[in-house]
Amino acid sequence: MRGTYGxxxxxxxxxxxxxxxxxxxxxxxxxxxxxxxxxxWMVSSRDDNYxxxxxxxxxxxxxxxxxxxxxQMKKRWPQxxxxxxxxxxxxxxxxxxxxRASCQAVVEAFxxxxxEYRQLAxxxxxxxxxxxxxxxxxxxxxxxxxxxxxxxxPWLGKLFPETLGKVIRATKQEVFFFGTPAGDSRFCEASLPxxxxxxxxxxxxxxxxxxxxxxxxxxxxxxxxxPTNGERVVSLATLKRVRxxxxxxxxxxxxxxxxxxxxxQYEQTADSQFVVDRHPHDENVWLLGGGSGxxxxxxxxxxxxxxxxxxxxxxPRSCWRLSRFTKTQKSEPRKA
Length: 336
Fold this sequence. Notes:
Layout: H1 11-29, E1 34-35, E2 39-43, H2 49-52, H3 55-60, E3 66-69, H4 70-76, E4 87-91, E5 96-97, H5 99-112, E6 134-136, E7 142-144, E8 148-150, H6 156-159, H7 161-164, E9 169-178, E10 194-198, E11 202-206, E12 214-218, H8 236-249, E13 258-268, E14 275-279, E15 282-289, H9 299-311, H10 323-330
Parallel strand pairs: 2-10, 8-15
Antiparallel strand pairs: 1-5, 2-4, 3-4, 6-7, 9-12, 9-13, 10-11, 11-12, 14-15
Helix pairs in contact: 1-9
C-alpha cells in the first residue's frame, strides 16, 4: 500500500482515498487488513524521475512521507546494504495488506447485508456479442440483470477475446518467502518497513511476520501465463536471481532457507494503466481490470468509484478508457 506513483497520474489520489476507506472498514468490521509498517523506496537507479516526480503528488494528497539520504537510511536500518542507493522515500502510514483475509471479509459483509455469493464460472460464449441480457453459469443456471460488471482479473481477456484479448494479458509472477535467522528480529516487521528497490530491475519485499517469512519478488513482467491451466511452479533461474539479490541487499539473509514460493499473475496492460469502461458495443456491460500488479490496494476506492459510474451514469477517466488502445494502434506501436 503506497502513494509513490511518479508524476502526472491518478493513482496517488486514488491511494489516498483507499487508505481512508481501508481504515473505515477496519473499524466497521473490527479487523486489521493494513499493516502500517511503512514503505521504503530505495533509489539505486540513475534515473530517479519516478520518485522525484512523486514528491509533489504525495504532498498534494497529504500522504505522510520523508525524503531520506543514504546516511540516514544506513543509520536507521543497518541490516540493509545501502552502498549503491542514492536516496529514499519513506511513506510512514503505508505498509502491506492481507489480501485473502480482506476478500473474505468483503464476502461475509456482502452476504450479511442480504447479498448472494455464488462461486461458479461464467461461460464465455457470446459475451462479446451485444446485447447481453443474461449469463450462463457452469452449473447450468442463468443470471439476468439490467447491468453487468465484469471484474475478472487475468480471465478478462479470455471472457472478452475480441474486446480485451489484445489489451489484457496474464503474466507469470514468482514470489519467494525466506526464513529469517533464528533469534534475529532485524528482518521482521517491527524492525523493517516494506521496501521497493528501484534499480536496473525492480525488486520489492515484505518483512517477516507471524504469518509468513521474508517476502522477495522481482517485479519484472514475466512471460504469458494461463490463469486456469498454468502450472504454478517457480523457475530455478528466477530463484537464483532473487537469492543473489537477497545476499547483496540483506547480507545476513545470504543463506536463508526458502520456506515457500508462489506463482501469481498480473493482469497486465501495455501501459500498466487500469481498464475502467463500458463495453464498446454494449452500454449495459462494464469492464474493470488491468490491475497490472498494483490494483488490489485501490480496491475500496475503485468500488466506491464504480458505484458512482454505474448508479449516477458518470464517465470514467480518459486514461482508463478502452479508446486509448485504439488510438495507440493507429499510431506507432507502444513499447510494453
